[in-house]
Design brief:
This protein is an alpha/beta fold. The protein contains twelve helices and 14 strands. The protein is globular. Bound molecules: pyridoxal-5'-phosphate.
């Protein structure tokens, strides 16, 4: 069935223009010695401005940014941290590395992010923090989560790795929690190859993370190689930051391209028995990953759709697994929404230069698959 005449559609790919090449080349040629932090400093300053936050520390990954922030908050053995069951593993790994206990809660049917009522039910005297992950660009219910965090004196952390371009009541994703973390992995809306950033408005937390991120060496320390504690090594390189500066100069365009792709899918799939990423009033969705969730009463075989995609040179992605289905954690099938949605959902390809015709190619297959589901009953 494979049609070799049609080009491969990746599920995502970065947009590397002349500007990225120019900056990367400059960093490779000249970004050493006195200039070895130039692009890093510029990238951090640009990111602060983009997000409207006071402090940023560029890191080697989004996971690293989360790890640093959680360590700086003092999260450790005996603490519990609440997060949604459906998530990428990176959001939970730092909690486990720090010796704290992840507490998984079910997701909300509409947002696919953690359900605030479930969060409140899961709070114990050991709870230290809530990790709000804005899944696929969808915004968490931040007002409710902030209220809960305030009521129980918990830290509200934002994992905004998938949510550049998403906004909640005027505030960009990642700018509302005690700290936010972003990823610039090659699959994300903007990329540095690998990379991430920690952001906060809290000066004390910023300086704590700065020390931890520099192998426990305090800023302004005059003794060479003097560390006062064991820290981490999660720095972004100047070369990566050069790519990042170019991406940030083009960020509005890259976000707009994600929205254009999403809108094409939404329009072409509007009569199908599915739901796509929501954009409730007062929010903007950066639409990192256009996703379909098929209605419960429709017969749908996720793996069959993905294999048809594959035969037609199209990449699809399964929705993230409930983390409690992974062997490291305890299964919890009381998470009804999580355990149902993941089997009925697929991420569709999205990138800056995906054409309308290519979107149609994807949509035709999705429609065909959904219609055959109807007929089989
Ligand atoms: C990509 C991602 C991360 C991790 O980012 P890395 O840069 O790959 O470490 C963390 N959380 C979420 C939600 C992500 O999508």
């Amino acid at each position: 069935m494979s049609d070799q005449s049609e080009s491969r559609i990746f599920y995502t790919k970065p947009s590397i223009a002349d500007l990225e090449v120019k900056y990367a080349l400059d960093a490779a040629r000249n970004g050493w010695g006195d200039k070895c932090y130039e692009y890093i400093d510029r990238f951090e300053a640009m990111f602060c401005e983009h997000l409207g936050v006071k402090y940023a520390i560029a890191t080697s990954s989004g996971t690293g940014a989360l790890h640093l922030g959680m360590a700086a908050l003092g999260i450790g053995p005996g603490d519990e941290v609440i997060l949604a069951d459906i998530n990428w593993i990176a959001s939970v790994a730092p909690i486990v590395h720090l010796g704290a206990k992840p507490v998984f809660v079910d997701i909300d049917k509409e947002s696919w992010c953690l359900d605030p009522a479930e969060v409140e039910r899961a709070i114990t005297k050991h709870t230290k923090a809530i990790v709000a992950v804005h899944l696929y660009g969808n915004m968490c219910a931040m007002d409710r989560l902030r209220e809960i965090a305030r009521k129980y004196s918990l830290a509200l952390i934002e994992d905004a790795a998938e949510a550049i371009g998403s906004v909640y009541k005027g505030a960009p994703a990642g700018s509302m929690g005690i700290f936010g973390a972003f990823s610039f992995h090659g699959t994300k809306t903007i990329t540095t190859g690998e990379g991430g950033i920690f952001v906060t408005n809290d000066e004390a937390l910023y300086s704590r993370v700065l020390t931890l991120s520099n192998h426990g060496r305090r800023k302004g320390e005059v003794r060479q190689f003097w560390a006062e504690e064991i820290g981490f090594k999660y720095k972004m390189s100047n070369l990566e930051a050069a790519l990042g500066c170019a991406q940030l100069e083009r960020v509005s365009l890259l976000i707009k391209a994600k929205r254009t792709v999403f809108e094409a899918y939404a329009e072409l799939l509007r009569d199908m028995p599915i739901k796509m990423n929501p954009e409730p009033e007062g929010t903007t969705n950066g639409y990192w990953m256009p996703t379909i969730v098929v209605d419960e009463d429709v017969k749908f075989d996720r793996d069959r759709l993905l294999s048809t995609f594959k035969n037609q040179s199209i990449d699809g992605r399964v929705f993230f697994w409930p983390l409690t289905k992974l062997p490291m954690f305890e299964e919890d099938s009381t998470h009804k929404v999580s355990y149902s949605i993941y089997q009925r959902a697929v991420n569709l390809p999205s990138y800056h230069d995906l054409t309308y015709g290519e979107v149609e190619r994807v949509v035709d297959i999705v429609k065909h698959e959904l219609m055959s589901g109807y007929c089989e009953d």
